[in-house]
């Protein structure tokens, strides 16, 4: 790109488009002065020849006469710019005509000159000014294209809003992230994407105070109601007077990173639980075996006709067996599952599991609502293990709802070509946020007499299927479990 201080030295190639040869001779004399020595002038006399030269992009500046036979210089400028020409054009007119001048500038002409008032200095200055302005505009366009490319091709979602946080500029990554099209987002406020209104309000206050936020964890909700873990950075863009009219934001999707962290934490918890369980089993099973042997020996030595003694012996035996059963459950809840995966229709597997809670629902006067996808839903499953996992969730849902008013909703929903989801919703008592965070922890339970291993087992089974499990709940409004499985 030519720099402004080079224009007085570097040759400037100028093409005059003029149908009058006398005007060409006069213009040639104006550029032949010492001040204009670096200006080299060529001449064409008709519209079509001028267009051919413009298409070849061989000149730095064009001087275009308004009258070109049956055509006009305005038409030539229009045709040139329509063809993508970015070379500056100066319109030459025979007399002052504000309407013509305005039309030329509106089309993009760099300047206009009245022929009878042109001198060598004015012509040279106009040519250099037009070329200098073209260089500046070209540099700006180059920078804009570079930053526009960064904006458009960024993997992270980027957007610009006005002071009310209404979308103004949106890159394709934001459309992909949220599932909303550009025109849909432009009708929305940023707050409509947030999972929680109070988080948005807190961020607004922080931005108002410090004019920026950096890498703040938020949860957005996509068009299909999927929750997306993100890192948000926002900066205010003030005008020359220091007034903020725009905000620029970058959103990074960290859903997979968060999932990987959760999976690692789950694996660590299960490993720890397994170690504890194995230690307990080793320490308890030996004396428990001795207890069983001693009990059998005692049973043989006691009088068989004493009903009171038989009652106590049976109580001891049942509780010893219960201890052994709890140890087995504890071991099974934490160790990786050995699965026998075969292709199963997920809808059929869900229906078979629902059959196991059908009687409970009827006895409590609860309603069952199902909505199964008609798409292909073949997934690799260990069907019995899957039924165990889903049954734990269904039983918890039934126990959380009130008799006669409970509604259990079970759906299968395709997520994409590679995954499908089982969604279990209840209108029960819900779970507090603190308890939701601990829901899959071993030995955590809200039930009286429960061991707190049911959902730990469920999570272990789902993870063994290379699936994932999500829980959404609000106290007093019910709970939703989402089980996501990879397709075949």
TrEMBL record:
Enzyme type, top EC level: transferase
Residue numbers bearing the 4-aspartylphosphate modification: 65
Every PAS domain range: 143-198
Entry-linked Gene3D superfamilies: 1.10.287.130, 3.40.50.2300, Histidine kinase-like ATPase, C-terminal domain, PAS domain
Domain Histidine kinase: 279-488
Keyword ATP-binding tagged: yes
MF annotations from Gene Ontology: ATP binding; phosphorelay sensor kinase activity
Catalyzed reactions: ATP + protein L-histidine = ADP + protein N-phospho-L-histidine
Annotated keywords: ATP-binding, Kinase, Nucleotide-binding, Phosphoprotein, Transferase, Two-component regulatory system
InterPro entries per the UniProt record, alphabetical: CheY-like_superfamily, HATPase_C_sf, HATPase_dom, His_kinase_dom, HisK_dim/P_dom, HisK_dim/P_sf, PAS, PAS-assoc_C
Residues of the Response regulatory domain: 13-130
UniProt EC number: 2.7.13.3
UniProt domain PAC: residue ranges: 214-266
A UniProt-annotated Pfam family: HisKA
Record-given protein name: histidine kinase
């Amino acid at each position: 790109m030519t720099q402004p201080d080079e224009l007085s030295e570097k040759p400037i190639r100028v093409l005059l488009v003029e149908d009058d040869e006398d005007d060409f001779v006069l213009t040639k004399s104006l550029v032949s002065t010492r001040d204009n020595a670096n200006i080299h002038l060529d001449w064409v006399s008709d519209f079509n020849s001028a267009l051919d030269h413009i298409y070849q992009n061989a000149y730095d500046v064009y001087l275009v006469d308004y009258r070109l036979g049956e055509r006009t210089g305005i038409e030539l400028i229009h045709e040139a710019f329509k063809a993508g020409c970015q070379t500056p054009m100066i319109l030459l007119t025979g007399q002052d005509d504000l309407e013509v001048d305005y039309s030329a500038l509106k089309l993009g002409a760099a300047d206009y000159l009245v022929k009878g008032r042109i001198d060598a200095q004015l012509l040279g200055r106009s040519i250099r000014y037009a070329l200098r302005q073209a260089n500046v505009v070209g540099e700006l366009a180059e920078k804009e294209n570079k930053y526009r490319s960064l904006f458009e091709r960024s993997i992270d979602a980027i957007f610009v809003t006005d002071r009310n946080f209404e979308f103004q500029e949106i890159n394709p990554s934001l459309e992909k992230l949220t599932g909303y099209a550009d025109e849909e987002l432009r009708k929305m406020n940023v707050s409509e994407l947030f999972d929680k209104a109070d988080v948005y309000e807190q961020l607004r206050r922080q931005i108002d105070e410090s004019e920026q936020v950096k890498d703040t964890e938020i949860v957005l909700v996509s068009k299909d109601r999927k929750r997306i873990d993100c890192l948000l950075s926002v900066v205010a863009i003030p005008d020359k007077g220091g007034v903020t009219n725009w905000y620029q934001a970058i959103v990074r999707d960290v859903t997979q990173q968060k999932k990987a962290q959760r999976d690692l934490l789950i694996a660590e918890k299960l490993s720890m639980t397994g170690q504890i369980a194995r230690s307990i089993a080793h320490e308890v099973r030996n004396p428990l075996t001795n207890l069983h042997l001693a009990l059998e020996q005692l049973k043989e030595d006691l009088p068989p006709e004493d009903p009171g003694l038989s009652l106590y012996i049976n109580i001891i035996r049942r509780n010893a067996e219960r201890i052994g059963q709890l140890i087995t459950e504890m071991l099974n809840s934490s160790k990786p599952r050995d699965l026998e995966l075969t292709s199963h229709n997920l809808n059929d597997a869900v229906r078979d599991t629902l059959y196991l809670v059908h009687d409970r629902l009827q006895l409590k006067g609860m309603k069952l609502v199902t909505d199964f996808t008609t798409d292909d839903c073949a997934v690799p499953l260990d069907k019995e293990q899957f039924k165990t996992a889903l049954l734990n969730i269904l039983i918890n849902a039934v126990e959380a709802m009130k008799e006669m008013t409970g509604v259990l909703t079970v759906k299968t929903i395709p997520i994409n070509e590679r995954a499908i989801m089982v969604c279990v919703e209840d209108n029960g008592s819900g779970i507090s946020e603190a308890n939701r965070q601990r829901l899959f922890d071993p030995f955590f339970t809200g039930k009286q007499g429960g061991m707190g291993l049911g959902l730990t087992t469920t999570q272990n089974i789902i993870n063994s299927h290379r699936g994932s499990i999500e829980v959404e709940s609000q106290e007093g409004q019910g709970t939703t479990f989402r089980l996501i499985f990879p397709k075949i």
